[in-house]
Amino acid sequence: MKLAVFGSPIAHSRSPEIHQAFAEQTGREIQYERILASPEEFSERFAQFAAAEGVGANVTVPLKELALGFSKRLSPRAEQAQAVNTLIFRDGEWLGHNTDGDGLVADLFRFGQALRGARVLLIGAGGAARGVIGPMLDAEVAHLHIANRSGTKAENLVAEWQQRLAGQHHAQAKVFFTLLSAGDLASANGQWDIVINATSSSLTDERPAVTEATLANTPFCYDMGYGKQPTAFMQWAKANHCAVADGLGMLVEQAALSYFQWTGDIPDTQVVLDSLRSRL
């Protein structure tokens, strides 16, 4: 089974070892490679991969929204997010899916974070943020606020969701109990239970330019990035007396959901996460 992860940068990606560990657990043989692709190169590189009998791919920054164009069909999660992190070759065509949000929710539960009724701040309005809005609404958070350097981009994202929700049937009316709001980074100040950094700032050892007022309620602070050391966002939050976590668990959980789409197998994520953490 030929698999790959596409992104730029990509050398840091742990996806090959994660999926190899899943394959060893489930008795499968796979070939999983990293493929460096800028937005301009993505179409050509993906076409080459598909022509070489590739059957599944992960997509990371900055390509998740571009991957929509390679998908003949979209899963409900990808449709919601308008971003794709998993491509599956099925029945002769490519299906676009998004496992980011469900992976994040699973990892937050691992840390004992109750989402129902929680006030959640999501920093960032790119593909990573898009992928988690639907699962957050399904988890029945009380308030989801999206703060971004470009407040207009965040506001447009919320407007998309409000329009989508307005057209849903009454059977899904529970989502209307979640307050959706957005603004620039200055709007991040508030009383939050959970703060999530969905920007790529950790890749450059930086953090979003939010102030200490964001942490007034000492929220649980989660960075979707990860590394050998705590990210700059985590260090800042910890210095302000907040509990913190990085996105390694999310990476493993979303990878397991991708692996299930490709193989039908459900791997043991905790074993893989513990092994991966010990080798960072």
TrEMBL record:
Domain Shikimate dehydrogenase substrate binding N-terminal residues, every copy: 5-87
Record's keyword terms, sorted: Amino-acid biosynthesis, Aromatic amino acid biosynthesis, NADP, Oxidoreductase
GO CC list: cytosol
Positions of NADP(+) binding: G124, A125, G126, G127, A128, M224, G247
Keyword NADP: yes
GO biological process annotation, one example: chorismate biosynthetic process
Active site: K64 (proton acceptor)
Pathway the protein takes part in: Metabolic intermediate biosynthesis; chorismate biosynthesis; chorismate from D-erythrose 4-phosphate and phosphoenolpyruvate: step 4/7
InterPro entries: Aminoacid_DH-like_N_sf, NAD(P)-bd_dom_sf, SDH_C, Shikimate_DH, Shikimate_DH-bd_N, Shikimate_DH_fam, Shikm_DH/Glu-tRNA_Rdtase
Residues in SDH C-terminal domain copies: 247-277
Quinate/shikimate 5-dehydrogenase/glutamyl-tRNA reductase domain segment(s): 114-202
Catalytic reaction equation(s): shikimate + NADP(+) = 3-dehydroshikimate + NADPH + H(+)
GO molecular function, a single term: NADP binding
Subunit note: Homodimer.
Protein family per UniProt: Belongs to the shikimate dehydrogenase family.
Role summary: Involved in the biosynthesis of the chorismate, which leads to the biosynthesis of aromatic amino acids. Catalyzes the reversible NADPH linked reduction of 3-dehydroshikimate (DHSA) to yield shikimate (SA).
Official protein name in the record: Shikimate dehydrogenase (NADP(+))
Species of the source: Aliidiomarina iranensis
Gene name of the encoded protein: aroE
